[in-house]
Each structure stands twice: as C-alpha cells, then as structure tokens.
Amino acid sequence: MNIKHDSRPIGIFDSGVGGLTVLKELIRTFPNEHFIYLGDTARVPYGAKSARTVERYTIQVADFLIRHNVKGLIAACNTASALGLGALRAHCDTPVLGVIQPGCQQAMNRIRSHNDQVGVIGTTSTIASGAYPQTLATFEPRLKVRSLACPLFVPLVDEGWIDHPATRLIVEENLAPFIENPVDVLILGCTHYPVLKPVIAKIIGSKTKLIDSAEAVADSLAVLLSQVILPAPSDTRQKVDFYVTDVADRFKHLAGRFLDGYRVDNVEMVDL
Amino acid sequence: MNIKHDSRPIGIFDSGVGGLTVLKELIRTFPNEHFIYLGDTARVPYGAKSARTVERYTIQVADFLIRHNVKGLIAACNTASALGLGALRAHCDTPVLGVIQPGCQQAMNRIRSHNDQVGVIGTTSTIASGAYPQTLATFEPRLKVRSLACPLFVPLVDEGWIDHPATRLIVEENLAPFIENPVDVLILGCTHYPVLKPVIAKIIGSKTKLIDSAEAVADSLAVLLSQVILPAPSDTRQKVDFYVTDVADRFKHLAGRFLDGYRVDNVEMVDL
Questions:
Q1: In chain A, pLDDT over 90 holds for what percent of residues?
Q2: Does B92 lie in the same domain as B226?
Q3: Mean per-residue pLDDT of chain A
Q4: ipTM of the assembly?
Q5: Is the peptide bond before A45 cis (omega within 30 degrees of 0)?
C-alpha cells in the first residue's frame, strides 16, 4: 500500500492566547505534525469587534501562514470562525478548519433527541453572529438553541482570575438563565473558556454536559488529515513554531497557563 | 487689544471609549472649540500591549488627526501617553498634550508635603512603563510613589459592570495594598477609571483624595490655549466630530455611558 505524506506545516491562528487550548489538544493528538501558531496579540481581542474588522484581520493572519507554505489552516478562535471564515475561504485555496463546525458536531453527538436543549456561550461578536444556532440547524432544524454572550470571561482568564470569588460571581450572573432553566448540553464557544471549565461545571451543575471545542477540533483535524490533506511521515518529530504580532514576553507568560507546562521557547514577533 | 484666534479643530484620541471621560470635561469647559475625537476601536485595548506597538498605533492615529488640520493633539489615553508620547512628539510639530503630566500636576497640588504618599493605578503597560513615578519625580524627587496595575477595571467598565458585587470584590482585591496601607492621594491613571470613581472612593475610604486626570487635562488645555495655540473665536459654536476604526454601533452605545447623555450622532468609521 502506497501511503502518501506531506511534511508541510499546519497553520493555526487565534487573536491571542485562547487558541492555545486547541493547540494543546493537537500537540497531544498529532505527534508527527509541524504546527505554526500565530497569535494576533497586537490587535487582541477580536470578541467585541465587527465582522468587517475581524474578516480583515483573519485574512491578514492567514496570509502570513500561507506564505509559510502550510498544508491546512485552523482558525482556533470562535470569533474569527464565526465572522471571518466565509471571507477566508473565498480568499484562499488552502483547506480551512474552524472551531464552530467541530463544536456543533460534538454537541450533536451528546444530545439524545431534538427535544434536548442546547446552550452556547461566547464573545459578544460570536453570539451576535448567530453562527452557532445556524450551524446547529444544519444538523437538526428542530433543535432549540439558547445563546449567551459572556464578554468578561476572556479578560478574567487573561489576568489569571481563574478560581476567585469575583470570577464565580460573574460566571453565576452570566449563566443565570442556564441555572434557572438548565440546558442539556452547553457549548463553550470561545477558546478561552476551557480554562474556566471547572468553575463553570460547578456552577452549572452536573446535569449539563460541557462541550469543549478543542477536543472536537482534534477529531476534525484527524478526519481532514485522512481525507483532504496528507499527514506528515510517521518518523517525523512534532514541532511547534510560535509567532505573535506584539512582543513575546506576555505571550510566553500566558502560554504556560494554557499549555500546562509545555515549553514555549522560541516566539518570534512579526508585523502583518 | 488685538486677540488672535484659530478656528482649527483640536484632535483628541484614545484606544477606544476611555478618552470620552476627558472629552466630557473638555465639552463642559470649552464651549467654542471644535473637537475631533478618534477612538481606535479596531485595536482596543492598548493597556497590555508593548511600547513598540502602542507607539506605532499612536502615530497612525495622530497622523489621521493631523491630516484633519488640527491645531493641537490630546492623547486622552494613559497608555498612549505613557508609551507613545515621546515618539509622537519626535514625529510631528503639532503641540501634544498627554494625560500623565496634568494628572501628576494635580496630584502635586493636593499633597501637603513630600512625606505624603502617592498611589497610582493604571493598565499593565502604563504601570510597567514607570511614567507616573518618573513624572512625579520631576516635581519632587523625594516623593514616595506606589503603583498598581488594575487590568480588569477596563473590561468591567466596557461591559457596564459598574456597581456590581463582583466589581466591588475585584476593586477590593486590586486595591488591597492601598486599603491596608493607605495613600494620601491616589491617581486614577487610566481614562476608564473615573467611571468607577464611586466604587473606588467607597472602598479606599475618604482619607485618600482621588485624582481624575480628565479635570486636570481641561486645566492644561486652558493653559495651552492661552500660551501655545490660539483659542477659537468666542462666537463659534462648539462642535465634536467622532471617528472610530471599527464599526460605530458599539461606540455609540458606550459613548452614552461615558458622556452622560451627550448626543453622539455622527460617528464615522475610518481605516488607518
């Protein structure tokens, strides 16, 4: 059997550090791939910005990765996936994977019937885009989806207020509609939110299943590597290159929190 | 007596909406001036970004205002004032007023002797720059200055969590060093913070005087208009033009909160 391979890197991008929760899962799952991660830390966050601006930034960021000869692109940012993916796919021929489709797929695997209630939380722009309910409707039009913007979760994670009484108060107040009237499945529709998973799980209760799109993206990438793009040779050693658009120090510091101790040595700063 | 006038506008800029606390004071104080406000809402916030990036953005933003033929520039953002003002002054001939010098001047007016303790709170980048202690030292080298970064205050204000128990918890924890060991004067070194003034005042206690740089900037502009640039003719009606780098809707919504009901009608979006 003649198995073909492709040693070119896979590009993964985010507005900043949130996409590292996705990268962590990819590092764990694909020991032979070469990843290039680009965090747009000069213009972070995307979560309250318009479709027009997010589209423009998404294409600039993707173009940088395309110039690095990537075989595939992963938008590891829900806001970029919700607002920028259409424009990006029209702009380039490189296969692009977002985080919304995989997250919705995983939510669908966890519901028992269309009578189950699905909740989605995300940034203001992701929720306003309606991308989650629209994507879920392509799987099951009868599904009832309730969406909530939780704009303070990202700064809380970025500043390390992970398990603080103030964080619990904010999570409680933001998720009140899902506490009073529980959903069966709750999609964490922002790559920062998995860091708050323990707090959210405690507040929301054990009856609601939490969907973390990072795991779902790894599953989707496995499918992509078997069907659309070719995997790296199995004797290749995994490699990750990091790029940021603002100075690297703060990124390095935060990356430790997101990658659970994975060593982030060489982070290069680039202008887009 | 032959009084000369200059009808050209005064440019005022900020990373987003924070500078509106300064503009509010200018609107109140200068009934004949024409102001052009530019909020860099596509790249907001500046507060955790590097000097290199903030310098670059500050110059781009100022260049836009200079093309609008302004007679003076006001950096109504502490982070831009702390990190970008040196580069901006080297870049252009237009007189530039920052918020740090006026805030320090006002703090100096409020202390009784060099034994008084001065506190400064601001964004991560403003505090890391050391701009406040350095400027205060030019007034009084013996002064003891204690600085604290409060990075969550900006998102709390932007999301309207002004008087919430979670906000009080975060303010309490951030300002703990100034509660345990009080300062005589506390400089609110970020243009967002005046919105939290009532909460901060309640937590910090009545013995500490709070310095809001917005009022100080209005005083400094009055000096500038009498000594460096010329005021508008006294029969001119005040006018404010608003520009933003991302779509205007969110800005309009937030502007109401900052300007206490001043009508923000025409907001134009521009690419820098």
A1: 91
A2: yes
A3: 95
A4: 0.90
A5: yes
Global pTM value? 0.94
- Under 8 Å CB-to-CB from B133, ≥6 apart: which residues? B120, B145, B147
Chosen for mutation from B246, B249, B251, B271 (greatest number of chain A CBs closer than 10 Å) is B246
- Asked if A42 has any chain B CB less than 8 Å from its own CB, the reply is yes
Q: Are residues B179 and B193 in the same domain?
A: yes
Mutate to test the interface with B, among A56, A169, A192 (most CBs of B within 10 A): A169
Q: Is the pLDDT of residue B201 over 80?
A: yes
Chain B partners of A250 at a C-beta cutoff of 8 Å? 48, 50
Q: Is B168 helix (H, G, I), strand (E, B) or coil?
A: helix
**Domain assignment of residue A178, given as a range:** 100-213
Q: Which residues pair with B183 in a beta bridge?
A: none
Q: Could you report the per-residue pLDDT of B2-28, keeping only the tens digit for each? A: 568 999 999 999 999 999 999 999 999
Q: At what angle do helices B213-227 and B100-110 cross, to 10 degrees?
A: 110
On whether both A84 and A168 belong to a single domain, the answer is no
Q: Give residue A152's pLDDT.
A: 97
Residue B5, in any domain of the structure: no
Query: pLDDT value at position B257?
Result: 82
Q: Which residues of B touch A48 (CB under 8 A)?
A: 158, 250
Residue B3 domain-assigned (yes or no): no
The SS3 call for residue B97 is: strand
